[in-house]
Amino acid sequence: MDFNAKLDAALERLHTEGRYRTFIDIERKQGQYPHAVWTTPEGALKDITVWCGNDYLGMGQHPVVLDAMHEAINATGAGSGGTRNISGTTVYHKRLEAELADLHAKEDALLFTSAYIANDATLSTLPRLFPGLIIYSDALNHASMIEGIRRNGGEKRIFKHNDLDDLRRMMAADDPSAPKLIAFESVYSMDGDFAPIKEICDIADEFSALTYLDEVHAVGMYGPRGGGIAERDGLMGRIDIINGTLAKAFGVMGGYIAASTKMCDAVRSYAPGFIFTTSIPPAVAAGAAASVAHLKVDQDLRDQHQTQAKILKTRLRGLGLPIIDHGSHIVPLIVGDPVHTQKLSDMLLQDHGIYVQPINFPTVPRGTERLRFTPSPVHGAKEMDALVGALDALWSHCALNRAELAG
């Protein structure tokens, strides 16, 4: 077997399809986000503006977060020292879990190294806790949810995206006595659309099913205290397990679930993804706890975020650019071809100092390749003008289609 030849062939397929992912060297500067410095392939330094970051509110640069992290690292050092079972549980971890449980009005919360691991570990463990469990998963659920459900060895059903009739039909066809769980997201990150949470909860009640809600793209940004879409809609009490991240709106790193004390204890005790993983550093936990606490009371930052998203969508729509707008903070601009999407991304970076990564298959379906913009409160009028002007010029330069404008 010529292993190198196999690797060459696999990589060449990505190049041929225009799906090969290129990482660029970016250095963020404290206090200057979304501005950063790009080291070009030739070694030159170029100032750029980041338009595809998931630090949605700029909390990764916030003094409250940085001060908490400095204080913790000075007090404890760098690492956690091991898994939570051995030596990696500290007052910082417990404080963060208490903040998260309070955020979601749950009895408890459980920390993981990422939201991906939280989804994977929890969903792959639940059938061990509830033998015979059937999981009903939305067709557009995140890869971490898909992987956790795939690995658990239990029964699964994939219902059409946000299709309540399809979900009810599937649940009605299964054994009424079998334990059931519905897994879905509140905000789907590629299109920016919302789940019908209340209606899904109604169906869960009808069939005595548990509910598992991924709020990764909503925590910190929606609801009066940043608890997510379920908090915004007054539905947190109807969700059994909430998954969230500390790496997006909260600006740090890590993931978690929030649920009942018994549920968290059972996952903690049975999930290999928790048991055998070194815990996040105390300084990271301290920064995340400070961020969560701050965003519980900073509604102004959430309002600014929504305003910036609305402004960008309005301006792009006014130019006839084909955006998707479901009312969330995510702004997908459809290009529809992987090669053109990559070319636009390259030209924005090289010619305009604007960084936005192309989103291609398999993250999105073929033919819906896109640029995905994430405006934030720290993207000002100057940055907005530069982005809109660059997109307008490049759309014409590349002779891409524009939508018909009303009036």
TrEMBL record:
SUPFAM superfamilies: PLP-dependent transferases (SSF53383)
Key word Transferase present: yes
Domain Aminotransferase class I/classII large per the UniProt entry, residue ranges: 47-391
Lineage: Bacteria, Pseudomonadati, Pseudomonadota, Alphaproteobacteria, Rhodobacterales
Subunit structure: Homodimer.
Protein name: 5-aminolevulinate synthase
CDD domains reported in the protein's UniProt record: KBL_like
Biological process according to GO: protoporphyrinogen IX biosynthetic process
Taxonomy, superkingdom: Bacteria
Record EC number: 2.3.1.37
Pfam families cross-referenced by the UniProt entry: Aminotran_1_2
Organism of provenance: Octadecabacter ascidiaceicola
